[in-house]
Amino acid sequence: MLTVEHLNVWFGHPPARVDAVKDAGFTVAPGESFGLVGESGSGKSTILRAIAGLIDTWSGRIEVAGQPVAARRRDRAFYKTVQMVFQDPYASLHPRHSVDAVLSEALRLQGMDDIDRRIARLLDDVGLGRGFRFRYPHQLSGGQRQRVAIARALAAEPRLLLLDEPTSALDVSVQAEILNLLSDLRAEHGLTYVMVSHDLAVVGHMCDRLAVMQQGRIVEVMTVEDLRRGAARQDYTRQLIAASAGYQRA
Amino acid sequence: MNAARRNWLLSDAPQTRRQARLGALYQGWLTFRANKLAMFGLIVLIVLIAMAALAPWLSPQSPFAQDLANRLQPPSAAHWLGTDHLGRDILSRLIHGSRITLFIVGTVALIAPVIGLFIGTVAGFAGGWVDQVLMRITDIFLAFPKLILALAFVAALGASITNAVLALALTAWPPYARLARAETLTIRNADYIAAARLQGAGPLRLLVRHIWPLCVSSLIVRVALDMAGIILSAAGLGFLGLGAQPPMPEWGAMISDGRTYILDFWWVAAMPGIAIFIVSMAFNLLGDGLRDVLDPKGAKS
Amino acid sequence: MTLLSVRNLRVTFPTRQGTFEAVRGVSFDLGRERLGVVGESGSGKSMTGRSILGLVRPPGLVTADRMQLEGQSILNLPERKMRKIRGRRISMVMQDPKFSLNPVMSIGDQIVEAYRLHAGGARAAARQKALDMLAAVQIRDPERVMQAYPHEVSGGMGQRIMIAMMLAPDPEILIADEPTSALDVSVRTEVLNIMDRLVRDRGMGLIFISHDLNLVAQFCDRVLIMYAGRIVETLAARDLHQARHPYTRGLLNSLPRLDAPQDRLPVLQRQDSWRDGDPIAESLETEFPGGL
Question: Checking DSSP bridges between strand C34-38 and strand C18-30, what pairing results, if any?
Fold first, then answer.
């Protein structure tokens, strides 16, 4: 479904050039859920944005569904295949657009017809119900906003969903609801996920395999079973696992 | 308003598009209404508009009727605000002058922010050389004092009220362009713009549907606050004889007429001065109230 | 010994739909201990911390039957008196150091100024104190950091600097509001170690506000669980995983776990009765761990 090879992403120009991702490579099979784990600044979100076409300054090879993607402009077919859910549901919805406006715009841009019926279905799919159709973001809680954002991503009926820390801005009880929703949607629609998170437990719950990133490089790709068994090969991965287990008094 | 309708408007779960829109408007109105001074400003402006609309019926006399026998009369029962050096009734002239003031304010308010919004958002959104070119042009306009530039425009185009308005509008847009560009720069990298891009939205749609609605509110606030300055600039042009031409009862020109007599017959210059003062202040208060409603940064908490 | 005693604390905000009660009758005592306050967003946990320091902005209204710092009432003190308590006797560390540090002042100047504001004294002495504090929070090159500006330091460093600044005047109580949630896990441990040591060595009382149950269970001595502006359960931190209140249990269960994979996460079913039911407490008189 997704192949990334020798991906380099940088920002700015020399001498102030920052290399955010260095020679990253991984593949994700159709229907698989793949995690990208690392601390802030490790380049995990940057990879996602480069795949989505939100960053122009990259080199290497990105293939989606067997097709190499263009360096800059992506065509409509690309956006029908790949969609993204952002980290902060408070920043990813336009403050002046109602749920109705957000979803109908997404549907129109994808050239869909029968907008009313589709909006109702999308809202049902993400567990909001039709009563939410005409609300504005400020009338929604964080979890409800994230559901709207997921509905927007689903509007295009994509096959690959990029999830950028979709629950890190939410309370744990809401996180559980959203993670369950994402699992259900993957089963129902046969979606492929690439999920970025700093939380190993979340990635362990959601993903089949994961890549551990440190300072722009992928240091280890492993299965979640290996993660659970503590069979990490790299020191850095072991550090992350130890740290995520909580606080041990020094 | 009955409680049922109020609840319908304030509902957090609107059932139709219309209810959502009306609810948002009503929320804004409640915020605005809580600001007493802004309400005062709004009332003054409504009175001004009513005065302009009903000028022929409200004014006791014709604004042009001269009566040289009764020139420079102090305020009295016959002439509430006195008469000027040609014996014209100052009240009638003020009432008719409100039309000119509204015309100036309205036209400038329509032209300048639109130019500013367009140039600023395009510059901020496109970036690169487009931004450079547009912003350097803006800088050039900003480098001149506003009134001087307007004077130059009027001098080149000829003295008339339309040209004065045009000159004011052409000199008033650069600050709006700056403001709109700054807002665009912060909005441009927001996640919701990225999300719209991922839906396949082109630059034009992003600009019109996503960026403009967010810039417009702060522009409206800014325009309302700037209106006082525009009225004063218009009065300044009138005062210098470059705006409205005699015998039009433009407030600035009326002050200019009265300045010869300012020591002995104070009301001739003072009355239009007071009118300008009140209307300018009303716009400022209104702008403050609009900021409470529209500016998301100020309206929080 | 009780440092801080709060009874029936309420914080209300007037809104168009009537008054909104952010905190509804919170009571607790704080000794020389690490007290965790846990809850979801909107549970009133941050507002509780802010109201102790008199940082609730109007039109918010703070009332309480009692709010005493070592026997002296600090409820709704005038701003001038509150300023003397804030920083000198009770300090606060916020979530994101970026918003708490002045961007146009060097870090050294800020610490020195904060210290002299509360303790007075000569500049040179204050400077030495600042250097000591930076060293105390494990900053390797305090001389260099003193000259730096906030944008030149990393998030973890910024948070340590904030802690240094807050601890320079030797407060009796530190209120930490999500002090580590903006930090990476590796830095987080370091910052927690620093706070831990300060509590132990100086006998400070720590109110640790967090949404992270596991962290609080491991770091604190005692935990208050807040829901909808009230404390629903009080228990010793080591017993957190044996919590009895359905809300606490629900929160714990909804966390995904690496060691126990499950297909679906249990979702919290909120009950209206949680809003007003009696709090579950082991015992209301607090057991202050002696060996701190």
Answer: unpaired
* Separation of alpha carbons A167 and A142, rounded Å: 10
- Specify if B284 maps to a domain: yes
Please indicate whether, in this complex, the C-beta atoms of A247 and C250 are within 8 angstroms of each other.
Answer: no
Please tell me the total count of domains within chain C. 2
- Phi/psi at C156 (5° precision): -65, -40
Please give the Cα distance from A102 to A100 (Å, whole number).
6
Cβ contacts of B10 on chain C, cutoff 8 Å? 16-17
Dihedral sign for Cα atoms in the order C183, C184, C187, C188: positive
For C90, phi then psi, to 5°, come to: -130, 125
The pair of three-digit structure tokens given for residue C41, joined into one six-digit string = 């967003």
Residue B195 contacts A where some CB pair is shorter than 8 Å: yes
Residues of chain C contacting residue A240, judged by C-beta atoms under 8 Å apart: 185-186
Residue C16, chain B, CB below 8 Å: the answer is yes
Question: What residues in A contact B209, CB-CB < 8 Å?
Answer: 105
Q: Which of C249, C212, C267, C263 is nearest to A173 (CA)?
A: C267
Shared domain for C227 and C156, answered yes or no, is: no
Residues A244, A200 contacting (CB under 8 angstroms)? yes
H helix intervals, A141-220: 142-155, 172-189, 200-206
Q: Final residue of a domain: which of C136, C152, C170?
A: C170
Residue A194: which H helix or E strand, with range? strand A192-197
Chains near B (3 or more Cβ pairs under 8 Å): A, C
C184 and C252 together in one domain: yes
Query: What domains are defined for chain A?
Result: 2-73+80-92+158-244 (3.40.50.300)
pLDDT tens for each residue of B40-93 = 999 999 999 999 999 888 888 888 888 888 888 888 888 888 888 888 899 999
B241 lies in which domain range?
93-301
C188 plus C80 within the same structural domain: yes
- Please give the residue of chain A at the shortest CA–CA distance from C191: A247
Residues C6 and C80 in one domain: yes
Indicate the residue among C123, C151, C170 that finishes a domain: C170
**Residue B188 sits at the chain A interface (C-beta within 8 Å):** no
C16, B10: Cβ pair inside 8 Å? yes
Residue from the list B24, B192, B205 with its beta carbon closest to the beta carbon of A94? B192
Total domain count for chain B? 1
Contact A249 C218 (CB under 8 A): yes
Task: Enumerate chain C positions whose Cβ falls within 8 A of a Cβ in A.
Answer: 40-41, 155, 184-186, 188-189, 192-193, 196-197, 211, 213-215, 217-219, 250-251, 254-259, 261-268
Distance, in Å, from the CA atom of C197 to the CA atom of C137, rounded to the nearest integer, reads 10
> Residues C130, C151: one domain?
yes
Q: Determine, yes or no, domain membership for B49.
A: no
Contact A142 C41 (CB under 8 A): yes
User: Is the domain of C12 the same as that of C25?
Assistant: yes
Same domain flag for C81 and C114: no
Q: Using DSSP, state whether B104 is helix, strand or coil.
A: helix
Contacts of B8 in chain C (CB under 8 A): none
Residue B230 belongs to some domain of the structure? yes
Domain of residue C102, residue span? 96-170
**Over its length of 250 residues, how does chain A's per-residue pLDDT go in tens digits?**
899 999 999 988 888 888 899 999 999 999 999 999 988 778 899 999 999 999 889 999 999 988 888 877 788 889 999 999 998 888 899 988 999 999 999 999 888 888 999 999 999 999 888 888 888 888 888 899 999 999 999 998 999 999 999 998 888 888 999 999 999 999 999 999 999 998 888 999 999 999 999 989 999 999 999 988 888 888 888 888 887 777 776 5
Across the interface, do A149 and B24 touch by the CB < 8 Å criterion?
Answer: no
Contacts of B195 in chain A (CB under 8 A): 84, 86, 92, 149, 152-153
| B214: CATH | 1.10.3720.10
- Six-digit token string for A148: 């709207």
Q: Which of C11, C13, C16, C56 to mutate to test the interface with B (most CBs of B within 10 A)?
A: C16
Is B257 part of a structural domain of the chain? yes
